[in-house]
Amino acid sequence: MARDYNSYESPLCTRYASEEMQFIFSQQKKFSTFRRLWVALARAEMKLGLDITQEQVDQLEANIDNIDFKTAEDREKEVRHDVMSHVYAYGKVCPDAAGIIHWGATSCYVGDNTDIIIMRDAMRVIHRKLVNVLANLAGFAEKYKSMPCLAYTHLQPAQLTTVGKRATLWMNELIMDLEDLEYRMNGLKLLGQKGTTGTQASFVELFDGDGDKIDKLEQMIAEEMGFEKCVPVSGQTYSRKVDTAVVSVLSGIAASCSKFSNDLRILASFKEMEEPFEKNQIGSSAMPYKRNPMRAERITSLARYVMIDYLNPAFTSATQWFERTLDDSANKRIAVAEAFLATDAILNIMINVTDGLVVYEKSIRARVMKELPFMATENIMMQAVKKGGNRQELHEELRRHSIEAARVVKEEGGENDLVDRIAGDPMFMISKDEIMAVLKPENYIGRCPQQVDKFISECVNPLLEANKDVLGEKAELSV
Predict the structure, then answer these.
(1) What is the rounded CA–CA span in Å between residue 451 and residue 445?
(2) What is the C-alpha to C-alpha distance for residues 382 and 83, in angstroms, rounded to an integer?
(3) Considering the entire predicted model, what is its pTM?
(4) Separation of alpha carbons 478 and 45, rounded Å
(5) Of 26, 234, 284, 363, which is the active-site residue?
(6) Would you say residue 202 has pLDDT above 60?
(7) Which residues, at least 6 apart from 5, have a Cβ–Cβ distance to it below 8 Å?
(8) SS3 185
(9) Would you give the DSSP letter of residue 459?
(10) Which of the following is catalytic: 154, 269, 285, 478?
(11) Is residue 154 among the annotated active site residues?
(12) What is the pLDDT of residue 383?
């Protein structure tokens, strides 16, 4: 079977990651980037006075994507060196320039610079998708900013919040991730051409010790590849802490998405919210009534992979001896690529799910009303005090009634009868109608609507405006 050089070979690609992200980590992308770097090097060397002609540069440039992988594979079987095999294959289609390809460079010139370029391109995709997730959640938060729902601490019912306010909690963490991502994207630097141990000794030879030309060469390459700078110092490779930092950001995105997916799975169990569920979708092969949160579960699953994968580049960075060792290569080729592919898959699901979240308003209201009497006890107590009651005695009586009402619910499976208990207790001097007038969920949501409005206007809308050209992305899933 012929190998597909336009896709990354990984189980993550079979069903999860987008074709766009697969291509970024494909062999075609990798080795065409090698060639772009060789063109940039040759062009800069020519402009700085080395014996390279414009015709040679033009020939190299015309064949950037003309990669004969079979020739490179056959050559690699002989020489056991992937970079030199591709120098050979490039020379076969650029015979006039074959002698100046890779002039002064090391394998890391193309290998490491390509890794940086690929991570930058992959981060741009992640950034775009993350912005679209935030746009979806912003619309959701605005729509439901005033809808009361139970909030939870320790997974136990606490004071009320709103459906929209809870969405801002998810968004806040994703914005933190977006800021981290932008910081890493904007701070990426090429390795440049540093030589075998980072000393640029080969370029000292080529340019007869002219340091200004060596610095200019490096800046010209960086600018052609779309970077402002190259790293100031290095051994043979760029510091593997770069990989650690980048995958750390991906791990952070995964953690935030997992928080969302776990919350959604619990809310689905409560019958308050669900992920989109298609008309003919089957939730369980055995139980026809089931509506399993499969998309949210997949987010949780893939996120766990990315969070654990962060350890790979961290350990690799920590064990790079002196100017470099080669125990990084096989690991980083898998760990970094897989982290991006999995994060891409997570964000595809996030876009899909957040674009169609289902809210069961009546179910949410019913759950609120079952718990609200407990939460309203302080308001009830204040009304009774105004009528002449003793605050401390009322507090004790409310505690006793609350415990008994809770016992009926938990041990007997009965309804919450706290309202009836209080209304029937002459100590409170309050009727059931007066109590029910207090039991309006909207009175217990604090500043949720205002907080949502402020958060969206001050924190979300500016970043959506700054990225308005990428908004509106959809994601179809293979469930």
Answers:
(1) 11
(2) 79
(3) 0.92
(4) 49
(5) 284
(6) yes
(7) 26, 27, 28, 67, 69
(8) helix
(9) I
(10) 154
(11) yes
(12) 86
